[in-house]
Design goal:
Elements (H helix, E strand, L loop, with lengths): L5 H16 L31 E5 L30 E2 L6 E2 L8 E2 L8 E10 L12 E2 L2 E3 L4 E3 L6 E4 L2 E11 L2 E5 L2 E2 L10 E8 L9 E6 L12 E8 L2 E10 L11 E6 L6 E8 L2 E6 L2 E6 L15 E6 L3 E13 L3
Protein name: BglA protein
GO biological process, one term: carbohydrate metabolic process
InterPro entries: Beta-glucanase-like (IPR000757), ConA-like_dom_sf (IPR013320), Glycosyl_Hydrlase_16 (IPR050546)
Length: 337
């Protein structure tokens, strides 16, 4: 496959450097760790449990139901009459807004139910075993963005215990790197394309120092290097903006490098449990939080520059503070009368 370009990696480096500058403590159930070897200023002062960021994946048996998502509201707040049925409105100021910038903003745009049928379970990981299932997940080794951190496959950074998968980032001295972390991927092991629903039930504990992300990259990169072959961000949030999650796509025509990427934010309490869902059908993608659709991508022009999503993609779990109940992939079909 073709990975993101050096230009994109440098852009990610700058973003993550800000993350590390504001990194803070997240308490976990882990026993106290040895003192951090980071140089002064790399780790926050007053840290009682040095250098642990946690991502957990835990099983929880829930069965997705057909058409459970996209429950449209019949009654809209009165201020929406001024917004032309688009965006959000404030019940306080009664002003219209393009994005839900505050938790109490009300949605003005109805998202009618997609006519879909959820089929058989294609794959899932319940993390019930004693170790990471290497038939489904690979742990990357090497330098990760930014250059301050290193991905490892050590048990210290990723392991299964008591029915959960834990991904841990630590502040420690590894020579050129000041942080260790892990990234799990299904690359070359599991892949999916149009005709699937991907569900991740997760929560992201509040606290600076986190950047949880569940995202997908193309297995083959048949349309060229990033972003031409596409990227799908199912869920992403940061510790510095822990009250919102975002969805996005990156394509040749729409991408962060050109400041033209397509996406949207959904404001919620990310430390609570939520079900993040991506419905992937031919010609359109749709994102949900707890059954509420907040972003859809279906370009009018279905060329590869705008829609490279007819190919197979693999799943990534990015190092962060994150707990996940389950990861499940279902077959998804258009419903026909």
């Amino acid at each position: 496959m073709l990975w993101p370009t050096h230009q994109y990696e440098r852009w990610i480096h700058h973003c993550l450097l800000l993350w590390f500058c504001f990194a803070g403590i997240v308490r976990t159930s882990q026993p106290p760790q040895p003192s951090s070897q980071c140089t002064a200023g790399d780790c926050p002062k007053g840290r009682k449990d040095p250098g642990v960021l946690l991502m957990q994946l835990k099983p929880k048996l829930h069965r997705a139901e057909s058409n459970k998502t996209d429950q449209a509201e019949d009654t809209k707040p009165s201020c929406c009459s001024r917004c032309g049925g688009r965006g959000w409105c404030s019940p306080v100021s009664r002003n219209c807004h393009q994005l839900q910038k505050k938790l109490y903003y009300e949605p003005c745009e109805s998202h009618p139910p997609d006519a879909v049928t959820v089929g058989a379970l294609d794959w899932s990981d319940e993390f019930d075993g004693a170790a990471i299932d290497t038939s489904s997940w690979a742990l990357l080794e090497g330098e990760g963005p930014p250059s301050l951190q290193r991905y490892t496959s050590r048990r210290d950074n990723a392991f299964v215990e008591n029915g959960t998968l834990k991904i841990v980032a630590k502040c420690e001295d590894l020579g050129s790197w000041k942080y260790s972390s892990a990234r799990l991927t299904t690359n070359k092991l599991r892949e999916w394309g149009p005709g699937h629903r991907i569900e991740v039930r997760a929560r992201a504990p509040a606290g600076r120092g986190s950047w949880p992300a569940v995202w997908m990259l193309p297995s083959q990169g048949v349309h060229g290097s990033w972003p031409n072959s596409g990227e799908i961000d199912i869920m992403e949030t940061t510790g510095c903006a822990s009250s919102k999650v975002q969805a996005a796509v990156q394509t040749g025509a729409f991408n962060a490098a050109g400041k033209s990427q397509k996406g949207n934010h959904f404001y919620t309490t990310t430390s609570a449990w939520h079900l993040y869902t991506l419905d992937w059908l031919p010609g359109r993608l749709k994102w949900y939080v707890d059954g509420v659709s907040y972003f859809a991508f279906a370009p009018d022009v279905q060329n590869t520059a705008e829609w490279p999503f007819n190919e197979k993609f693999f799943l990534n779990l990015h190092v962060a503070v994150l707990e996940i109940d389950y990861v499940r992939v279902y077959e998804l079909h258009e419903a026909h009368a």
